[in-house]
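seq as requested:
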Amino acid sequence: MLFHSILFYVFAAVMFSAALGVVFSRNPVHSVMLLVLTFFQAAVLWLMAEAEFLAIVLVLVYVGAVMVLFLFVVMMLDVDVEAAKRGVSRYAPLGVGLALLMVIELIQVIWLRSREGDVASGFAATPEGYSNTEALGAVLYTEHVYAFEIAAVILLLAIVAAITLTMRKRPGLKVQDISAQVAVRAKDRVRVVKMDAEKKQ
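struct tokens:
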């Protein structure tokens, strides 16, 4: 149990450091890579809690798909880092306030549950034959089915917004004109020029 606790605090410290790097990194690409490291550490913590399904989903979906999408979007948006730095100080008080509010809420939830005895001390082994995937699916598609559907709609909106941002008009952007390409004539594209033969010197 002591070894598990040490591993937990080590992985949690790495995840916390990577999350701070995401926020304070000056390079957007470095922020995305640090976010990948944060997700990996979170997946390891899920494995320690014997929630293998959540750990695999975190790696496959977020690290394998969503983070690749983030990386391509960051590169295609051509973010102006200097302009982003100038706007950080303006929104810093709001961000710090929201972060403190979330920390206070998490501490209250953990404290209340520990008083009620809902949180077990240490790592408890699951019984033989127990499937956390089956238990998660049973809860997800019965008690929380509406929240699951709302989350799916929000993710769809995020995908549409990302595509819209990349397709916006900006100087130097080359856009296809399909109708003009289809209506073009061969004589407008190819010109035959007759030239006199030249003698070799």
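The chain has a mean pLDDT of 79.
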